[in-house]
Amino acid sequence: MKKDRVMKRLIPQLGEATLQSRGDAFTTLARSIVGQQISVKAAQTVWDRFAALAPATITPASVLRLKVDDMRAAGLSARKVDYLVDLALHFDAGKLHVDAWRSMDDEAIIAELVAIRGVGRWTAEMFLIFHLLRPNVLPLDDVGLIKGISLGYFSGDPVSRSDAREVAEAWKPWCSVATWYIWRSLDPQPVAY
Prior knowledge:
The protein is mainly alpha-helical and 193 residues long.
């Protein structure tokens, strides 16, 4: 708030909610895949239908037991079904360094995650923000972040990644927190993966 005029205004307006982890790495990544390129509201609807397919909770093993047709009927595209199955296979086979993630740096985790089909940099960054609660992630591929910076800092004019990076200099080392407030400026309901 001391370094940024927009944050100085936004943070007090948006109340006491905070960024919180759901605590489960697989669920966070699966929710991120479901949420790719659709609105937060649509993602929640599809997630709710998808989660209802599992007998108890969504786990790698439960996803691997689901029928493709049922997942498609829940609103998932064929591509997202493939991505969710590949994610489940990676977890189920122990191909990920889940226990080491807390001590790994952001770029090392991103490199491991993008090896999974359907997990790009944006999805890996959502994981860093929403699961590991890393404080200084700047997801420049996030449409909401770019839109929020455009509206908050550039009177709605188009914003380049370079412009966004420049604005975010004042946010360091709290880019994740500032990003979360930018998202909330667009939709006051806190986003959670």
